Amino acid sequence: MRKYPNPMNPSVVGVDVLERIVDSRGRLHSYRLLSTEWGLPSLVRAILGTSRTLTYIREHSVVDPVGKKMELCSTNITLTNWVSVSERLVYTPHPEDPGRTVLTQEAVITVKGISLGSYLESLMANTISSNAKKGWAAIEWIIENAERALS
């Protein structure tokens, strides 16, 4: 819930909680709107035919304290006429070492009606992969700062 803002991913410039509920099984559901500033390369902006770099992402997360699992699903809601990105992250305890965490990440990238679509898909896939590494660093940063705040 404290993933943003963080110094590892400055592209997220705003987070709005739309709804947060606890279901009958004790799982916390959060629905958020993320405002992101994509540093799109000029070639990509030319391909998309836009100078727009501020985009919005819909995010739904489920934290299951009993199952010790967190699932986060996000989908862009801006630029969907050209590119749709749906991403799913699942954090679970390592089966052999419960002190460690396993992250499973999957993403579906769909480029529509754009010349050089495969180039754009490749660029997006590389960005998502790179951001996964930043995500780990961000989680560690959040934990360290939360521990300091409690001390």
TrEMBL record:
Any Pfam family matching the protein: PRELI
Coiled coil: none
Domain PRELI/MSF1 as annotated: residue spans: 1-151
Entry GO terms, CC: mitochondrial intermembrane space
The protein's name in its UniProt record: Protein slowmo homolog 1
Organism: Lipotes vexillifer
